[in-house]
Amino acid sequence: MRKLLLLLQDRRATTAIEYSLIVGGIAVAISVIVFAVGSDLKGLFQSIGTMVARF
Fold this sequence. Notes:
Layout: H1 2-9, H2 11-54
């Protein structure tokens, strides 16, 4: 328990936690964007493939 209190008082640990939360937020945002755009890109590539197959 004492080690936990010392860890919470250490500024480096606080900074590391803040940075990990920022990185986690960025990872979630990237995942949402990839999944949202992924289906649109799939449709785009399929339509391009269909056009190319006609020639």
